[in-house]
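subagent[fold] <- orchestrator: predict structure for attached chain, return C-alpha cells only, no commentary.
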Amino acid sequence: MANILLIEDNSDIHEILKDLFQKEHTVYSAYSGTEGLVLFGREKIDLVLLDIMLPGKNGDEVLREIRKDSQVPVVMLTALGEKALVSQYLLDGANDYIVKPFNLDEVSARVTVQLRSQQPPEIQESVRSFKNILLQPDRFEVFCGQKSVRLSRREYQIFQLLLDHPKKIFTKEELFEQVWEELYMTGDNTLNTHLSNLRKKLAQLDPETDYIETIWGLGVRLKED
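subagent[fold] -> orchestrator:
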C-alpha cells in the first residue's frame, strides 16, 4: 500500500482517480497547488499525481517545489492542448505523464511502474509475474490490475513451485511431497482441494486466462501461451 497525493481541481476527474486507487492505496486529495504542497509537506507521500492547470500554484510550480528536496515519483496529468509542454516538465523532474482523456488501465499501469521502481532491490526481486498477474511473496497476495486476492501459504507454495518449473508436469505425489514435505497417501484429497481453491482465486482475478492446466493421466503444470 502506498500514499498517493492527488492534486486535481476537476472534481469529476478527481473522484474517478480517487476511486481507482483508494481500494489499494491511501489517497490524499488536494484541489489546488497550494493545498497540494501543504499536504506534501505534512504527509509521507510515495507518489504524486499532479494536474498542470491548477488554482493557486500551477503544476509546474508545484513540481519545482517538490524537486527542491524530494525525488518522489511525480506523474503529470495533462490535457491534449498542453502536450507540447510535457518535455519541459520531464526536464524539470517529472517521471511520467498521462494525457486526458485517459484510459484507467493505462493510468493504473503507469502508477504501478513508478511505485515499483521505488521499492528496495530485495523487494523488487521478490515480486514474481506471469501473464497478467503479479505475486507478492511476503504478503501471499496475487494482483491483476487493481484487483488482488490473498492465497493461503500452501496455495502460494504450489503456484510458486509451478512457476519455478514452467515446463515440468508434476504428479500429485511430487506436488504434495515438495509442498507439504510429507509422504503422499493415495486417496488423500488435500492437494486437490488446494489446487481447486488456487484455480478459483486466479479465475476471480483474471477470468479470461488459464494459468494451470491438467494433463490427464500425468499431472498438472503451468499453462503457457
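orchestrator: received. Logging for downstream: The longest helix spans residues 190-205. The chain has two domains: 3-118, 125-222.
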